[in-house]
């Protein structure tokens, strides 16, 4: 957890504890009192809040306190610090699960639908490896563990489809735009900004994205890298679709 204190539209300070936030809010109040930017009455009122021994994180959002700070152009924002790559991995794995749920539904609905996965087989697939270096940027220490977990998870999801639909409908090889159609899904390694574009849009990116060229039926991107974002990769009602 970290707190960002803003003053007059600019970042005043970044703090990891509520006590440091309180101390620096007091400093700002004293400064405003000395500059006569705040009345003694308002200062004492805010001081009473800040000096209370029961002051906690929740105290920051008491309406009266919050409104008085806003009058002085002071605000406090709260963020959850991501200290390693476990958070992006979890969110991307949720996305992968969602995408494979979608594939399963398409294949159940139309028996003509086949999918092509880059690589040789479920263990030696290429959904992810081109972008494995990207994971070093979010967690250098655990990079190998993160990418290994990602690879194994995708392998598991592929095997689940193989078990249901057989090897005739779950294929491996080179993925190409020219082979994509409503009954031929080409799976490719995507990122947070190119996996779900309007039909006909040119797909930006490298590696398999270059092979896909345009967003068309059967062009089926799966996000495998965290560097273009990972917080909005599943629908809001995703939880109700999770298969136990």
Backbone CA Rg: 25 Å
In spatial order, strands of the major sheet run 5-4-6-7
Arithmetic mean of pLDDT: 87
Query: Which class do the helix and strand fractions yield?
Result: alpha/beta
Shape: elongated
The N- to C-terminal Cα distance equals 31 Å
Count of distinct structural domains:
2
Question: What about the largest sheet?
Answer: 4 strands, parallel
Number of strands: 7
Number of helices: 6
Name the helicity range. 25-40%
Following the backbone from N to C, one meets helices and strands in this order, namely EEHHHEHEHEEHE
In the predicted model, the low-confidence regions spanning at least 5 consecutive residues are: none
What percentage of amino acids are in beta strands? 15-25%
What this model shows, in words?
Helix content is 37%, strand content 16%. 27% of the residues are buried. The protein has 2 domains: 2-79, no CATH class; 86-241, no CATH class. It contains 6 helices and 7 strands; from the N terminus they run ββαααβαβαββαβ. It has 244 residues and is α/β, with parallel strands linked by helices. It is elongated. The model has no long low-confidence stretch (mean pLDDT 87).
């Amino acid at each position: 957890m970290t707190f960002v204190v803003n003053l007059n539209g600019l970042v005043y300070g970044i703090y990891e504890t509520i006590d440091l936030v309180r101390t620096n809010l007091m400093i700002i109040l004293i400064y405003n009192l000395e500059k006569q930017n705040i009345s003694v009455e308002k200062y004492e009122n805010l001081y009473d809040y800040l000096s209370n021994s029961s002051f906690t994180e929740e105290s920051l959002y008491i309406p009266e306190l919050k409104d008085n700070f806003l009058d002085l152009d002071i605000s406090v924002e709260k963020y959850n610090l991501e200290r390693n790559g476990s958070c992006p991995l979890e969110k991307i794995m949720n996305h992968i699960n969602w995408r494979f749920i979608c594939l399963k539904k398409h294949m159940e609905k139309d028996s003509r639908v086949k999918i092509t996965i880059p690589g040789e087989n479920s263990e030696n697939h290429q959904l992810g490896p081109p972008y494995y270096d990207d994971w070093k940027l979010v967690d250098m220490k655990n990079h190998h563990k993160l990418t290994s977990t990602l690879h194994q998870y995708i392998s598991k999801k592929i095997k689940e489809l193989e078990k249901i639909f057989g090897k005739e409908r779950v294929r491996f090889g080179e993925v190409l735009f020219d082979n994509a159609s409503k009954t031929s899904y080409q799976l490719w390694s995507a990122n947070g900004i190119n996996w779900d574009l309007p039909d006909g849009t040119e797909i930006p990116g490298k590696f398999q994205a270059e092979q896909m060229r345009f967003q068309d039926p059967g062009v089926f991107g799966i996000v495998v890298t965290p560097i273009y974002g990972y917080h909005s990769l599943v629908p809001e009602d995703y939880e109700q679709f999770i298969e136990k």
